[in-house]
Structure formats: structure tokens, C-alpha cells
Write a structure and sequence with these properties.
heterodimer; A: mainly alpha; globular; B: mainly alpha
Chain lengths: ~200, ~130
Amino acid sequence: MTDVVAEHVREGEGARPGSPGRSDLQVVPLRALPAVAVVFALLVWAIAANRLWPLMFLHVAFGAAWTVVDLFLGFIIGPIMRRLPVPARIELTMNLMPKTVLLMPTLVTVTLAAGWQLGTVMGTVDSTYFQHGWIVASYIVVACMAVIALGLLSPANIAVLFELKKPKPNPMVIQKLMKRFIYAAGFTGTLQLAILVIMTRIRVG
Amino acid sequence: MSDRALPPVTALGMASLALILAGGIYLAAHLPRQVALAPAVLLLVASALLLAVNLALLARVRTFPWWTFFLVGKWALLAYVITAGLIEYAFLRDGLSGGPLIVLTLSIVVYAVHVPVLIAFTVARYA
């Protein structure tokens, strides 16, 4: 996919005025910022209230969304993109990437912060909890995902958008960054399967 | 700018993040028992050293698009300070105090600085 994107940019296709990937491309979609602010305000309220249901809702809903988005990107969107016509691939890539800039950090922050607070309310983060081994295993898997996401995924996501904003994007740079993004997304998607196993084990007891 | 001309900022940054996460897991895994802080402090110090080395190596690069680096870095810093603040708020809300609070707070500071550096570096190296 990345090879084709690079080739497409090199040939200058898809450079029609007003389409994303050019100077009008927004790295951070500003219109979505109020929604992110509302979500973070809800998170602060839930932690301050320290009540079971809001914390459970935020942790489960945002955690499920995080898992689904990771798996969807890695195992559904990727293969579909390979079968799309080249202009469609370009458009999809250039519309998808700005959204993930805000979506992923929001999902991750809410899931982890609400999850930690939920763990203190329910006592599951206590080392005397009978499923403590599984809880620690989840910490380790999340830490691995965090290192990949913060060190590779997020920087590549933003860098490719900056490259696409240039009047003459460098196809080799786009190819390199997209490969990095897709491999990192695939790896974190695989780790999400481990999280699903751990969380269901904890729930069943 | 060729890759060879640049220090291994991404690799060092990921190693630094892994160290503070390991320290955080060590502390979290022993809650609420009192636990020796030394391992977590050592991991934090090693992580902070990697951050310092990373910044020092980067500062020695002669031709680097610093304007782009700081443009991206300041906005990324703002974003990650907000997320770091939320994490810190959860710690304070839980009544965390003393040594563990200091270690975790400093770990969050390393996180809030190092991630924007990684983002700004990745963007600027191709500017």
C-alpha cells in the first residue's frame, strides 16, 4: 500500500485543488477539539465523583473502542486498502490520518485513567487481589503498547501529515513513515488480543 | 537530511519510556504495600539520563530544522502536558503521597517531555 501511495504522490495524481494531502490538510482537526475537551471533562468528573458506574462506563466504552479501532485498522482497513483503486487509497489515507491524531490519544488516556481509578474503587489494583498476576500482566502488555504507540505510531502519524502538506511531498518519506505506521498499528493490534484474553480472564475469575 | 547524520533519538526515547513504565509497573504491582523505592528510583534516573543524552546529542546536530522542531514540539508538549495532568490528577485523587508520588510525578514529567521530543524530531528530520 505504501509503495502505491508513494508512487501516486510522485506522479502528482490526486493533486486536485481542495483535496486533502495538500496545503489545506489539517494535521489536527480543530473542529473535533471541543469534543475531546468534553470527554476529558467527563473523565475528570468521573474520577472526582469516584463512583463505580461512570468509571466503569468510561473504562469499558473507551477501552472497547481502543481495541476495536486498533484491530480494525490493523486487520480490516489495511487489507481493504490494498484492494482499493489508487485514488481511493490516497483519499482514505489522507482523511484517516488526521482523525487518528486526536482519536487514539483520547481513547488511550480515558481508558487508562478511568481504568486505574476503577481498579482502586473495586480493589483490583490491590496486590492482595486474587487475580493480581493477570492485573500485572495487563500492565506489562499496556506498557509495551504504550512504548510502540508513543515512540513509533504517534510520531509517524504526525510526520506523514506534515509531509503530505508540503507542495511537493517526498514519496520516499511517505513510504517510510506509512510502513512504520502500519507495522506499529499491526503490532499494537496483536497486543490488543492479549488484553482481550487478560480482561476476560479477570472478569470470569 | 540523511538518517546517518542524526543520533538515535527514537531508539533512546523508546528505551527511556520503557524504563519509566517498568518503574511504574513495579510500584503499581506492590500497592498498597510499602515497597522499596530504590528500583523505581534507579529506573527513573536511568530514564532521565537517556532523556538528557537524547537532548544533548540532538543539540549537537549542526544542520537541523529547529524552527519546525520547536513549532511541532510546543504543541505536542501542550497536548502531553494535558494528558500527564490527567494521570497526575488520578494519582492525587487516590491519596498517593510521599516517595511513590514523587517518583511517579517525575516519571510523568519525563514522559511529558520525551514524547513531544520524539514527535518533533520525527517531523523535523524530514522537513
